Amino acid sequence: MKIKTKNHTVLDKIVSLTQEFVPITSNSENTAELDKILEIALSNLKGYTIERFENKGVKSALIYNAKKRPSRFRVILNGHLDVVPGKDYQYLPKIRGDKLYGVGSMDMKASVACLIMVFKEVVNKINYPIALQLVTDEEIGGFNGTKYQIEKGVKADFVIAGESTGLQIANRAKGILQVKISTKGKTAHGAYPWRGKNAIWEMNKFLNLLEERYPIPDHKAWKTTVNLSNIKTSNQSFNKIPDDCEIWLDIRYLPEETDTIVSSIKDLLPQDFKLDIVEKEPALFIDENNQYSKILLRVDEQVTKKKVRFYGAQGSSDARHFTRVGISGIEFGPIGGNIGSDNEWVSIKSLEQYYQILKNFLLLI
User: What DSSP string describes 266-320?
Assistant: First the structure.
């Protein structure tokens, strides 16, 4: 399947733009490179309205084909240009067979290249408002990009976040709960443990209960998981009983546990323990019978000639910020591998299919 344009195939343009994106070290701490990649992306969107946003030094943009922003778009195509840092060699894009390798190739520079080309192809052929949303802070939470735009009145009926999903449709994604839990004990000399109360041992009792309730799965599973990311005490002596202990937990909870996850953790805590919520981000969920997701699934199967399924994503995306305000959203993107690690890649054939699926979907709804 070749998608023809006047001079080159659209696939050629998608691959070329991806190769232009990959060498840019658009990591969260590299503001200049984040600004650079956003400007390169926007240089491919001349002739459309580009509404720029900036919050706390983070820049993002919303692109649409109208002089004034509509009160509500029917569809927003959401993409992020920031990446998880990689090794130096990964910033040199390489093509081997069907795979395009490079930092962010899968997550999600190739997807953004597709979204740009799809937007340009369909925006003048449809009679409803759509927008392309480009942000630069998704990897660190999306609070000053997507969330900030929503706070400034950006709305839609349906949002497609271009996260790589293997051309399947993620209509669910886990929420994020990050907490600090602390307890106090009683100090004493290490030779006389009965005279003190060891805060670390007390914390260990809680951790045993926590692991019993939320055991670490030995394979990919759709269940709530708990990561113990830090444990510390102010004690720096071998021969002293520590009288304080604090742990950090990163909890990925299922959508149906949104209202119960905090109380579930608190129920395990002894009375003198303290729990502080650092962050609670919503889970993503839309019904499989949502009119837009049903059409997308049907078009997906027509293009790929394969069975497509709805599924739950282990990680989160900026789609959750729309869920927070009652806007339906899904994650949908091309095939790839080794996300955020060595030898990250995206399938070139799937980029062609991804483009065609989105194009057909937007022309149909």
Answer: HTTS-TT-EEEEEEEEPPEE--TT-HHHHHHHHHHHHHH-S---EEEESS--THH
Mean pLDDT for all residues in the chain = 96
Domains, the chain, with CATH or none: 10-173+283-364 (3.40.630.10), 175-281 (3.30.70.360)
Whether pTM exceeds 0.70? yes
The pLDDT of residue 8 is 65
Whole-angstrom distance, CA of residue 151 vs CA of residue 204: 42
- Report the pLDDT value the prediction gives residue 229, as an integer from 0 to 100: 97
Element (H, E) at 210: helix 199-213
The total of other beta-carbon atoms located within 10 Å of residue 217's CB is: 11
DSSP letter at 282 equals P
The one-character DSSP state at 348 is: H
Residue ranges of the chain whose pLDDT lies below 70: 1-8
- First CA to last CA across the chain, in angstroms? 23
Angle at 336 between CA 333 and CA 339, to 5 degrees: 100
